[in-house]
Amino acid sequence: MTAIVIGASGGIGAAMVEALRDEEIAVRGFARSFIGPDHLDLTDEASIAAAAASLTTPPTLVFLATGLLHEDERSPEKGLAALDAEWLMRQYAINTIGPALVAKHLLPKMPKTGRCVFAALSARVGSIGDNRLGGWYGYRMAKAALNQFVRTVSIEEKRRNDRSIVVGLHPGTVDTALSKPFQGNVRADQLFTPSRAAVQLLDVLDALKAPDTGKLFDWEGKEVTP
């Protein structure tokens, strides 16, 4: 098994790299902050293409540990009046378009036969059926679009390799910079360290079967309604 982790500079991504190495799995990490051949910027397709071209071994696991919920003074919208076109486009660029471009360039690098997994971090708040609170417009919309992309590309990928698995993953609330401003109401036993989250998600990935492709799963391995 050979693994690729996108967003490996910290949080769940860095923890996933360590978890894979603990399992003695060959893994290579990419991130925007990395310099040289391991640099990958979701908003720069040329850097994604260059990262894909640098691979010497077909990866059997691609784990995309990226996401944007807040940035600088921007935060999730509480109501309709807070909608801003530039911020919405930024949300889509990181949460939807970037992962789609990663799939465009990395899925063709994965084996054409045998089990292989492409997994992208999504979120339960991207579920349309599970939306009972409203708000967080840009993040919800972008993650819902990501879930649709996962479903759509899984159908095409199945034609290339009938044992391929393309999924979205909801990691729960993880103690990272992304969730830091929103941890106040999270129970202590539901706030995971990045290391614990990585191990939980790796267990979910290990248990996936070919019929699971195109779906969204939470950290317990339970399917989340799109």
TrEMBL record:
<dbReference type="InterPro" id="IPR002347">
    <property type="entry name" value="SDR_fam"/>
</dbReference>
<dbReference type="Pfam" id="PF13561">
    <property type="entry name" value="adh_short_C2"/>
</dbReference>
<dbReference type="InterPro" id="IPR036291">
    <property type="entry name" value="NAD(P)-bd_dom_sf"/>
</dbReference>
<dbReference type="InterPro" id="IPR051468">
    <property type="entry name" value="Fungal_SecMetab_SDRs"/>
</dbReference>
<protein>
    <submittedName>
        <fullName>SDR family NAD(P)-dependent oxidoreductase</fullName>
    </submittedName>
</protein>
